[in-house]
Amino acid sequence: MPFIDSHCHINFPDLAANLSDVLAQMRQNEVVSALCVSVNLADFPQVLALAEQYPHIYASVGVHPDYEGVEEPDVARLVELARHPKVIAIGETGLDYFRLKGDLEWQRTRFRNHIRAARESGKPLIIHTREAAADTLRIMSEENAAEARGVMHCFTETWEVAEAAMAMGFYISFSGIITFKNAKQIKEVAQRVPLERMLIETDAPYLAPVPHRGKLNQPAYVKHVAEEIALLRGISVDEVGQRTSENFERLFKPGGII
């Protein structure tokens, strides 16, 4: 049964150093594809190079909200970089009020630029939000993010936030956090999100799922996320894998991977 890791960072040093093993583990665990997500423009060439080298690896382009004082992407630059056929998304983008404090208007401006670039390029958004749900949803609405659609990645918010995002055409993606014992709220959301609006991810090298918690995460472990969702919903792992893979294809349109 195929699985797709809809969000990872295999260009990061700990994974890039052992890339052949990372890809082999993907094959052994039936993870047929992965989306390597950009976090800043300086490292985007690495992300794109992986996507160009491997047919089953795809890329996004964007600057994460945690990256302060880096090259700021304007709409035109994002649209230009997104023209590459292996770039299938804009982001990750969004708001993070957890790690950074103070005047974060620059984060909100950056987020708006990504949404505008997604609308112009026709590529979906990958949205990161942490302790900023109200502003995230407000800006999504003001900038008509529904026109671009996309995914709320590594979802950790309430059902009400999920509902609001889905009303704008967004998918909800679950990471290894869903396997943690104390993740009650996320488990409840995963039981309620319609299967046709769900994606799975690792966010590797971070957030390794049980039974690998605390270790280096990798795309092969997305299978454990699918297993937990299957358990929570009382359905087969195969169904979770098939439906989330179909959703990935529908949203990102990479072409012919399942």
Would you give an account of this structure?
This protein has 258 residues and is of the alpha/beta class. 40% of the residues lie in helices and 17% in strands. It has one domain: TIM Barrel. The protein has helices at 13-16, 19-28, 44-53, 75-81, 105-121, 133-142, 159-167, 184-192, 222-233, 237-252, and strands at residues 3-8, 31-36, 57-61, 87-96, 125-130, 150-152, 170-174, 198-200. α4 crosses α5 and α5 crosses α6 (133-142). The model has no long low-confidence stretch (mean pLDDT 97).
At a glance:
The chain is α/β, with parallel strands linked by helices. The chain is built from 10 helices and 8 strands. Helix 3 links the parallel strand 2 and strand 3.
Could you state the order of secondary-structure elements as H and E?
Answer: EHHEHEHEHEHEHEHEHH
Mean pLDDT: 97
How can the largest sheet be summarized?
8 strands, parallel
Shape: globular
- What is the number of beta strands? 8
* CATH class value: Alpha Beta
User: How many independent structural domains?
Assistant: 1
CATH-derived topology: TIM Barrel
Widest beta sheet: strand line-up: 1-2-3-4-5-6-7-8
Low-confidence stretches: none
CATH superfamily: Metal-dependent hydrolases
Helix content: 40-55%
Specify the structural class: alpha/beta
| Termini Cα gap | 10 Å
Strand content: 15-25%
Number of helices: 10
Q: What's the architecture in CATH terms?
A: Alpha-Beta Barrel
Q: What Rg, in angstroms, do the CA atoms define?
A: 17 Å
